[in-house]
Design goal:
Elements: H1 3-21, E1 38-39, H2 40-69, H3 88-101, E2 107-111, H4 124-136, E3 140-144, E4 149-157, H5 161-169, E5 183-191, E6 195-196, H6 198-224, E7 234-236, E8 245-247, H7 249-285
Parallel strand pairs: 7-8
Antiparallel strand pairs: 1-6, 2-5, 3-4, 4-5
Helix pairs in contact: 1-7, 2-6, 2-7, 3-6, 6-7
Length: about 290
Amino acid sequence: MNYLKIKGICVSLVLIGIQSCGGVPEETSASSTSDKVFAVADIMTLVAEENDITRTLYTKGIVGAGKKQGLKFDEDWQDDDVEAGPLPALFLRGVSADIRKSDVPLGLYLGSDFPINASNKFQGKQADLFKKIKTDQKPQHFYEEDQKLYTSMFADLAVAAPCVNCHNDHESTTKTDWKLGDVMGATTWQYPSDSLSYKEAIGVINAYRNGTKAVYNSYLEEIAAFKIDSTKPTIGKAWPSSGFYLPTAEVFIDSVRKLASYHSLEKLLLADNHKKVKETTDLASN
């Protein structure tokens, strides 16, 4: 086994095991600022990038490939008389709802200037900043005065044909010429503090990952309740690209972690190193 593979495994174990193994030191004081290692914009960027990986994998690997095998996806997927899974936007909405149930004060929303659901249309400052995002696709970080929350907006791109086709064909759409690569909207993340400790940063990552697993498990539970056996794919290690299959929640989440964990740890270490360099420089100048 080569060094890079060993390193990748170690990184995954670190990030996956932090919550269950108590790998983050307890904070001595909730009001202390000395343990605030990470700027909120850095952590929002980290979790937004992991969200991009998750949504791309779900959109392409589950929805796109699944439709080719006969799997169905619908905005009313949780209705008793609908035998289907969640569309990508509804998958994200489910993650957001699960995060709100946790004790982590992390907000997650998906908005657009041409949303299918009118309630998701950007307003005010976010609408103005979204115009910039559509131009250069660069994140926007700011303080939301009305809500007293630090906010980060990231471009949400049309990464797969199912997204484009669904939005173009939807009966409530206000735009019918979406194409691959378009900025369809933006994911908006919010947090009440301008900086986070190690424990808080890992809490944010775990809250997002737990939400992802919860929604995927809800999808599998829906499948188990399907009344027509021929509409039920085989659940296991295989993906829709191989046939009428769906991966278990563990297989799906493990795939996300393999793609995201090394990058996430690198970002955490980089942010910590920047803080230590700054502290050393400040001490030297005093």
